[in-house]
């Protein structure tokens, strides 16, 4: 009986040791070797990521401005007035306009809705407010119809357009476009907050 008891204890210890050794080889359980979650494709065929992409700064010395954009996006070199970056089904564009003398930024933004509506199929205005986070800016939020460059499938886009008045009388307009199911208000705001005139 004593030998059987010793054998049972030995097998229990051996089993516990083997299980412990197997679990320690899992990369997700080791604190110094965490695996990075891969992006998943949603039902509409758009890529859904885990963490936000880091921002990098683009500086244009000729036009005299700088702005950050997601590191994985690429610049659309065909745009020479302002700048445009594209990342899959998302894109952002910065442009500069000169309003009529005496036109404030809110008035300009309200008058601009018709042009935006004509440029974005399925345009539906969601809001227009003075920003409490980006100094003196007005924000237009709207939905529109989009088509995935990856899958060719249609999707609903949730877009934001920041109107930011400049000291020289112009208005900088930042438009950020992307699928509604990936909409990140804080991420768009963070990009707008990085915009600076450098001359």
Keywords:
Protein Transport Mog1p, Chain A; 24% helix; three-stranded antiparallel sheet; seven-stranded antiparallel sheet; single chain; 199 residues; 3 helices
Fold blueprint:
Layout: H1 2-24, E1 40-41, E2 47-48, E3 55-60, E4 65-70, E5 74-75, E6 83-87, E7 90-97, H2 105-119, E8 124-130, E9 138-147, E10 154-165, E11 171-177, H3 185-194, E12 196-197
Antiparallel strand pairs: 1-2, 3-4, 4-12, 5-6, 6-7, 7-11, 8-9, 9-10, 10-11
What does this 3D model show about the protein?
The protein has 199 residues and is of the alpha+beta class. It has a single domain, classed as Protein Transport Mog1p, Chain A. 24% of the residues lie in helices and 35% in strands. The protein is built from 3 helices and 12 strands; from the N terminus they run H-E-E-E-E-E-E-E-H-E-E-E-E-H-E. The strands form 3 sheets. It has a 7-stranded antiparallel beta sheet with strand order 5-6-7-11-10-9-8, sandwiched between helices. The protein is globular, with a radius of gyration of 26 Å. The N and C termini lie far apart (91 Å).
* CATH class descriptor name: Alpha Beta
Helix content: 10-25%
Mean pLDDT reading: 81
**Within the largest sheet, what's the order of strands?**
5-6-7-11-10-9-8
Strand portion: 25-35%
What kind of sheet is the major sheet? 7 strands, antiparallel
> Which architecture does the CATH hierarchy give at level 2?
3-Layer(aba) Sandwich
From the alpha-carbon coordinates, what is the Rg to the nearest angstrom? 26 Å
